[in-house]
C-alpha cells in the first residue's frame, strides 16, 4: 500500500508567485524609490515575519533600516492582488531579525530579504528556548547582538526570557511554496527540534523512518487542530506560526504517547 503523504511541501521554498506577471506590491516609508515586493508574511497586527523586496540597493537598505529602528513601513498591494493582511508593517520588539541580500545579475537592482530569526532553523538549534533549570543562569545574561553567518546585517537579539513558565517561549515560523498546501516535512521537523519538542530523527531502518514520519505528520495535524500551528497572512509563499507554548506542546506529546497515536521509538 502506497502511503499518501500528509505533508506535500518541497524544498527549497521559492518566495515568488509564478502565476503573477508583476510584483505583488510596494513598501514605502523611507527614502528612495519604494521597493517592489516579491513575498510578504505578517501577523494580523502588522508584526513582520518576512519581507522579500526588489529595488535599488540604497532604497532597500533604507527601508529595512527604517524597520529595524522600530519605524513602520506601509505596504500597498498591486491592483488586483487580494490581500486581507495588514498594510502597516512593524518589527517585533521581542524578536531579532536578519537581512540577506544580493545583486540581481545584469540589473541595477538587488534582491533583499528581511525575516525574523524565529524562522531560521539553524539559529533555533543553536539558541534553545529558556527552560526552568536555565532560568537562574539566564537572569543575568547581557543583552548582546547575535551575528549570523547567513546574514548581511543583524539586529540585537532580545534578552533571554528568564522564567519558569514554559508557555512564554518565542514562536517559530515556517514557510512553504505557494503552490503547495503544507511545508516540507524536513522543515517542520527542523522547527520542532528547534523548539525542543522532538529529538527523534532516525531513518536508519524502514521502521525507524516510519516512526519519524508519523511523529512529524501527527504533530502537524494535531497542532493545527488545537491551535498550536496557525496559518498567517502571506503573499508569494505560505507561512505558519508554531506556538512557543512548550507546556502545551509537551501535553500534546504526552497525549500522543499515552493514546498511542505517537509510536514510541524503539
Protein topology:
Blueprint: E1 25-28, E2 36-42, E3 48-56, H1 57-68, E4 73-77, E5 88-89, E6 97-103, E7 109-116, H2 121-126, H3 135-139, E8 153-154, E9 172-176, H4 185-194, H5 206-226, E10 229-231, E11 233-235, E12 238-242, H6 246-259
Antiparallel strand pairs: 1-4, 2-3, 2-11, 3-7, 4-5, 6-7, 6-8, 9-12, 10-12
Helix pairs in contact: 4-5
Question: Could you characterize the architecture of this molecule?
Answer:
Strand 2 and strand 3 form a beta hairpin. With 266 residues, the chain is α+β, with helices and mostly antiparallel strands. The strands form 3 sheets. A 6-stranded antiparallel beta sheet has the order 8-6-7-3-2-11, covered by helices on one side. A 3-stranded antiparallel beta sheet has the order 1-4-5. The chain is built from 6 helices and 12 strands. The protein starts with 24 loop residues before the first strand and ends in a 7-residue tail after the last helix. It has helices spanning 57-68, 121-126, 135-139, 185-194, 206-226, 246-259, and strands spanning 25-28, 36-42, 48-56, 73-77, 88-89, 97-103, 109-116, 153-154, 172-176, 229-231, 233-235, 238-242.
Helical segment count: 6
Give the N-to-C terminal Cα separation.
23 Å
Largest sheet: 6 strands, antiparallel
Number of strands: 12
* Average predicted confidence as pLDDT: 86
Please list the strands of the largest sheet in the order they lie side by side.
Answer: 8-6-7-3-2-11
